[in-house]
Amino acid sequence: MGFSIEGPSQARIECDDKGDGSCDVRYWPTEPGPYAVHVVCDDEDIRDSPFMADIRPAPPDSWPDKVKAFGPGLEPTGCIVDRPAEFTIDARGAGKGPLKLYAQDAEGFPIDIKVKDNGDGTFHCVYVPTKAIKHTVIVTWGGVNTPNSPFRVGVTGGPWDAGVACGGPKGRREGVPVVEGVEASDVGRGGPMGHWAWRSRGNGGPG
Asked: Which residue from 62, 49, 20 is spatially nearest to 169, judged by alpha carbons?
């Protein structure tokens, strides 16, 4: 698996191999404009690659690096299927937003997040995962990812999931697909299973 970026500037690429068939990839463009993101397997672009990203200048009155996001709904473990997962956004001192949240499960299905503006620069957020698979939550302020975003959240189905082995991608950046799988045995509840990520099985690419 390989990655390359084409665009107005030479973008530094960082790849964090998770050692389980998945990796997190980040890149740092230094000029605004359209960028083509190539994801390559066996020297060929995967399906839908290259992915196009529109990089825009950072607004002068917004500081997404000062936004804090925390709470059990953003933790790697502890969330349970069909139960509310809550977290808080503290944007005090971060300038103009807006705040935008995105969430999806490892199969690519979007998850609705309800947001309550507390009127003091903080926000109460809650979503309800419906599948015992990994979820990704992205927090942006003024169109820019905040620190530690995207968040990769493991969701379990309670005591029925003792036989489930989860692994793979933790999320994705704009336009990059996430492929995930689960291996389970002797389970009474669960299902197929999870900025960028990719999971591959075997020697021939995704699957």
From this structure: 20
Residues 61-108 pLDDT 10s: 999 999 999 999 999 999 999 999 999 999 999 999 899 999 999 898
Q: Say what the pTM is.
A: 0.67
Amino acid letter for position 160: W
d(CA 196, CA 168): 12
Are the C-beta atoms of residues 197 and 24 closer than 8 Å to each other?
Answer: yes
Nearest Cα neighbor of 195 from 7, 14, 5 is 14
Q: Write down the pLDDT at residue 143.
A: 86
Token pair in block for residue 151: 């968040």
**Beta strands 79-80; 155-156: pairing state:** parallel
Q: Are 127 and 73 in contact (CB under 8 A)?
A: yes
Backbone angles phi, psi at 178, to 5 degrees: -120, 125
Q: Contact, 6 vs 38, CB < 8 A?
A: yes
